[in-house]
Amino acid sequence: MTELARYSLEWRRRDIPCPGPTILAEMTVPRGARCPAELEQMWKPGQGYAICWGLVSQKPIRRWSREAKARARRRNLQRRLEAKFPLFAQIFVAAELERRPAYYDADDPA
């Protein structure tokens, strides 16, 4: 699947109300392609419109596994407590793990 990007000529002056349409023109191109010449020719400096770029198609979001979340939570807890209480960090970590075992294990906290 090729990723697509959208170039558009949009109103960007926040201090002045838009005199016409917010988006004058837009074109969809493959990601990484240059701005189409037709769009560049429509743009004039000082007019209030700007050439904008945005992704149309994005990769799916990668979710962490429960085990990875649990490892990160335990690691972050350890780091936080060692920074705040270096002498007593191990005691506080053990107490917190005992207090909220489902959150720091691979179980679903919901």
Please specify the SSE layout and strand pairing:
Elements: E1 4-11, E2 23-30, H1 37-42, E3 49-55, H2 66-84, H3 89-99, H4 101-104
Antiparallel strand pairs: 1-2, 1-3
Helix pairs in contact: 2-3
From the structure above, extract its key features.
3 strands, 110 residues, 3-stranded antiparallel beta sheet
Summarize the amount of helix as a percent range: 25-40%
Structural class: alpha+beta
Beta-strand percentage range: 15-25%
Q: Describe the biggest sheet?
A: 3 strands, antiparallel
> What is the mean predicted local confidence, pLDDT?
90
Q: How many whole angstroms does the radius of gyration measure? A: 25 Å
Shape, principal axes of CA atoms:
elongated
| Count of distinct strands | 3
> What's the end-to-end separation, in Å?
35 Å
Order of the strands making up the biggest sheet: 2-1-3
Low-confidence stretches: none
Notes on the protein architecture:
This protein is α+β, with helices and mostly antiparallel strands and about 110 residues long. About 35% of the residues lie in helices and about 20% in strands. The protein has helices at about 35-40, 65-85, 90-100, 100-105, and strands at about 5-10, 25-30, 50-55. Strands 2-1-3 form a three-stranded antiparallel beta sheet. Helix 2 (about 65-85) runs antiparallel to helix 3 (about 90-100). The protein is elongated, with a radius of gyration of 25 Å. The two termini are about 35 Å apart.
